[in-house]
Amino acid sequence: MNDLELRGKNALVTGGGVGIGAAIAEALAARGARVAVTYRTHAPSDEAVGRLRSADGRPALTLRSDLTVEDEVQALGDRFAAELGGADIVVHNAGGLIERSRIAAMPHELFRRIQAVNVDSVFLVTRRMLPLMSTGGRIVTVASLAGRSGGHAGATAYATAKSALFGFTRGLANELAPEGITVNAVAPGFIESTPFHDTFTTAESKQQTVSGIPVGRAGVPGDVAAAVSWLASPGASFTTGTIMDVNGGQHFS
């Protein structure tokens, strides 16, 4: 096996139905991994599932689950174990803004929902999947540039959640290093062709944002997938506790 090949590895990608999650799942499958994807609101298309066949010809496992509900997370872990066995790679991609709201007008319930979708889900899935992982395991979380920059108006709660993932990543990396499991995160900047920006970003705002990206273009889901694929690979065994910026020079940590 070379440093990038994932043949024989079992991977879970949360929120893997569309956008960045779908690109990550496809990239892992292309390198030989057997992939399971979770979804709640965005089910993967038949065409997308067809692209996720592993090197040994096994079809992808699709798991509908609300990752903020402990019992549902327990059930998805049970099914993963029954269908695939041990887990080698866990990618936390599920999350979202839900809706824009300034803090002064935000109901507490909305603030808690945003934290649950972005942070509680990562905790619950991690806790469930860790018993299935062993030496050489990889955990990668998709955070956001908003966790560093604070995001735009109306996204403070989302930025708070994504920033929390940085601390979770570094703390968990310390906990799991003696077990030979690495834990890293990526922090994407503006990534087009995703439900997030299709829903919450206006055409004018997109144009303004892209004009300020030094490399001269918006990111695409494949840019994030490439970074995640490397962090999930055998070649990344000496990298843990890091936050990898994927933003075209939009922000330097």
Describe the structure using short key phrases.
253 residues, alpha/beta, Rossmann fold, 7-stranded parallel β-sheet, 9 helices, 7 strands, 41% helix, 13% strand, globular, 3-oxoacyl-ACP reductase, NAD(P)-bd_dom_sf, SDR_fam, oxidoreductase
Percentage of residues in helical conformation: 40-55%
Overall 3D form: globular
Q: Which ranges are low-confidence, i.e. pLDDT below 50, for 5 or more consecutive residues? A: none
- The CATH topology annotation reads as Rossmann fold
Instruction: Note the beta-strand portion.
Output: 5-15%
By CATH reckoning, the class would read Alpha Beta
CATH architecture: 3-Layer(aba) Sandwich
Number of domains: 1
Rg over CA atoms, rounded to whole Å, is 17 Å
Q: Give the SSE order as H and E letters.
A: EHEHEHEHEHHEHHHE
Annotation field: number of helices: 9
Q: Average pLDDT across residues?
A: 93
Helix/strand structural class:
alpha/beta
Organism: Zhihengliuella salsuginis
Family: Belongs to the short-chain dehydrogenases/reductases (SDR) family.
Protein name: 3-oxoacyl-ACP reductase
InterPro entries: NAD(P)-bd_dom_sf (IPR036291), Sc_DH/Rdtase_CS (IPR020904), SDR_fam (IPR002347)
